[in-house]
Amino acid sequence: MGGTMDGTNQQRRRGDTRQRIQDVALELFADQGYEKTSLREIAERLDVTKAALYYHFKTKEEILVSLFEDLTRPIEDLIEWGRQQPHTLATKQEIVRRYSEALAGAAPLFRFMQENQATVRELRIGEVFKERMLRLRDILIDPDAELIDKVRCVSAMFTLHAGMFVLQDVEGDPEDKRKAVLEVATDLVTQAHQGA
């Protein structure tokens, strides 16, 4: 076995452990609340020692912040991509589509954020998310657009957010619901662009 090969496998395994810690922690945070969850419980659920957990994260705050950073990285990447694109309708539609996917990928985290707003405020995760939302909004909105078209663009983003929470209790296949929400958000952006 070559040294490099071993190194990558080890790294991948280590990466998986980190992700498993995040997944289990988020599950526990969601089930019993962030405040009531201890590092010891996370270690027990994973069947690892507290020392093994410590190797990756010193506090549960670190776990939550890392979860937020990892799960919202696609949004950050989308903002960077969007800034370099022409202000065309196709760009805006693609931004809405990718944003919908990014939100779907981070749905458990956003549910947690919705239900644990005090913790989110304390760790400033909410502020970071809001700042990203504003940067995304600025890419979607044409600077010289009519007010009503600016409202349409912002509404498109909120439609995607609302789709994650408000439609949870509505009957239907989750993927069908996501597509319906995406269609409405895309319609809003399209309408706003035609107004431009």
From TrEMBL:
TM stretches of this protein: none
Coiled-coil zones: none
Portion annotated as DNA-binding: 38-57
InterPro entries linked: DNA-bd_HTH_TetR-type_CS (IPR023772), Homeodomain-like_sf (IPR009057), HTH-type_Tx_Regulator (IPR050624), HTH_TetR (IPR001647)
Domain of life: Bacteria
Annotated HTH tetR-type domain residues: 15-75
Keywords tagged on the record: DNA-binding
Annotated protein name in UniProt: Helix-turn-helix domain-containing protein
Species for this entry: Streptomyces griseosporeus
